[in-house]
Amino acid sequence: MTMTKPKTHATFELGEPGDPSALAALLGERLAAAEIAVSPAEDLGFAHGFRCTVGERRFYLTVGRVDDEGLAWLIVIEPALGLLRRALGQSDREEHARLALALHDALTSEERFSVVRWYNERGWNSDPEVWVERPVGE
Q1: Paired residues of 38 in beta bridges
Q2: 111-118 long-range Cβ contacts below 8 angstroms, 24+ apart
Q3: What local confidence, expressed as pLDDT, does residue 86 receive?
Q4: Band of residue 3 on the pLDDT scale cut at 50, 70, 90
Q5: N or C: which end of the chain has fewer CB within 10 A?
Q6: 81-119, pLDDT tens digit by residue?
Q7: Distance between CA atoms of 39 and 94, rounded to whole angstroms?
Q8: What's the rounded Cα separation, in Å, for the pair 6 and 95?
Q9: Class of domain 9-126
Q10: Domain ranges across the chain
């Protein structure tokens, strides 16, 4: 069975303005509870980011505001597996799916998060109206 490529971008809304640092810390805690290794979050100026390790594969997760009020948010999962390794047949789809599903569970288990939507990079950048409810399988 071939696994569909997991989505890389997620948006969600908060009922009240959120603090980027606290939000990144909360997501890091939730991922760590799902047995995903997480580095401390760093302030990137425009967002907060942290490294995640799933099995032997590494990813970088960025969390930032989409609006000035801090009600709409974007999360980007960036795989660290480069083009050369992919060309040589290596894959991180299973680990990416595990990370994305753990993140999805973290977002959907909190009542204060709503309107969780998933996109691939092209979809987010060109047509954000095309989205799915879950990061894998659609």
Answers
A1: 52
A2: 112/14, 112/15, 112/16, 113/12, 113/13, 113/14, 114/12, 114/13, 114/14, 114/15, 115/11, 115/12, 115/13, 116/10, 116/11, 116/12, 117/10, 117/11, 117/12, 118/7, 118/9, 118/10
A3: 67
A4: low
A5: N
A6: 767 676 777 777 899 999 999 999 999 998 889 999 999
A7: 21
A8: 10
A9: alpha beta
A10: 9-126
pLDDT tens by residue, 4-36: 678 899 999 998 888 888 999 999 999 999 999
Tokens of 43: 């302030």
Q: What integer pLDDT is reported at residue 18 of this predicted model?
A: 82
Neighbours of 117 (CB within 10 A): 18
* Residue 1 pLDDT level (bands cut at 50, 70, 90): very low
